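User: quick one, sequence for these tokens?
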């Protein structure tokens, strides 16, 4: 797999224009001037760069989770450094919108360098893009235009601060719009939670727990055809608990049933639930229930 350490090398591979700045590239479609076309397809690659793009679909479907989204005006996609990406030519976009690419070192020494790591949507996959309403699209495009103006002017001592400030504003709006998207997709969120719980039921009932151990979040997300971060964020918005917390609560609930079988030791219960180390099971149980597994068993006996 190819990894590109510089922005110039990445853009050259993508068959896009060389950047005006060694660590920043802004491509914005203005009027009759379309966006340059990147290469149509690519095997897996990664870079040391962030990428923010807004594109409009002409052919093919871009899905949100596993459901085609209502808004077809604009779809924003966010990529973080060292994410592995690949694509083919099945989706065709208009040559309108924008693409902003910058090396992670461009943010060094700024508040955004830390803040950007907190935006979960950089870990979402392309089929969980941010879909914009027409008014949201106009707002985002206006910020991108301001960045483009500063990028193409004769850059001075103030240029970087202004561009970083505009990038920060763009990301704050993106975060707000993702919140809206989660709320508007409550039905999808409920469906995903139901599928998640059903998947856990099937995994436990199939006996895989004893053979393969506790399923990883990555396994669960892959089976549901969503990214790990998106699954966790969706469940968090819907229930207040992350994927890991849901999995832990499921295990604890199962543990309570097994603990009522007096012929099984605490260690046997832990192994049956897929825990490699009984001590970890006991710590988790006490953290969630406030009592140890043995105390829970004794308490139940008394009742």
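Assistant:
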């Amino acid at each position: 797999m190819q990894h590109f350490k510089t922005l110039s090398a990445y853009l050259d591979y993508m068959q896009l224009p060389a950047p005006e700045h060694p660590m920043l590239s802004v491509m914005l479609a203005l009027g009759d001037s379309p966006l340059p076309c990147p290469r149509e397809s690519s095997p897996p690659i990664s870079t040391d760069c962030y990428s923010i793009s807004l594109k409009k679909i002409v052919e093919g479907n871009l899905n949100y989770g596993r459901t085609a989204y209502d808004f077809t005006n604009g779809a924003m996609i966010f990529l973080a450094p060292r994410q592995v990406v690949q694509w083919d030519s099945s989706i065709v976009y208009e040559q309108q919108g924008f693409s902003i690419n910058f090396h992670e070192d461009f943010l060094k020494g700024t508040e955004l360098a830390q803040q950007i790591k907190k935006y979960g949507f950089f870990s979402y996959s392309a089929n969980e893009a941010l879909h914009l309403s027409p008014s949201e699209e106009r707002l985002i495009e206006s910020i991108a235009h301001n960045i483009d103006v500063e990028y193409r002017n004769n850059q001075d001592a103030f240029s970087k601060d202004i561009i970083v400030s505009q990038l920060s504003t763009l990301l704050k709006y993106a975060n707000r719009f993702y919140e809206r998207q989660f709320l508007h997709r409550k039905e999808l969120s409920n469906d995903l939670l139901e599928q998640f719980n059903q998947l856990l039921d099937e995994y436990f009932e199939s006996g895989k727990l004893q053979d393969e151990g506790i399923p990883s979040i990555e396994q669960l997300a892959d089976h549901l055809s969503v990214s790990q971060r998106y699954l966790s964020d969706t469940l968090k918005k819907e229930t207040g608990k992350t994927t890991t917390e849901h999995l832990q609560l499921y295990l604890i609930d199962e543990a309570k049933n097994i603990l009522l079988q007096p012929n099984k030791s605490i260690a046997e219960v832990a192994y049956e639930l897929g825990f490699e180390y009984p001590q970890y099971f006991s710590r988790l149980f006490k953290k969630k229930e406030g009592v140890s597994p043995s105390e829970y068993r004794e308490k139940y006996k008394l009742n």
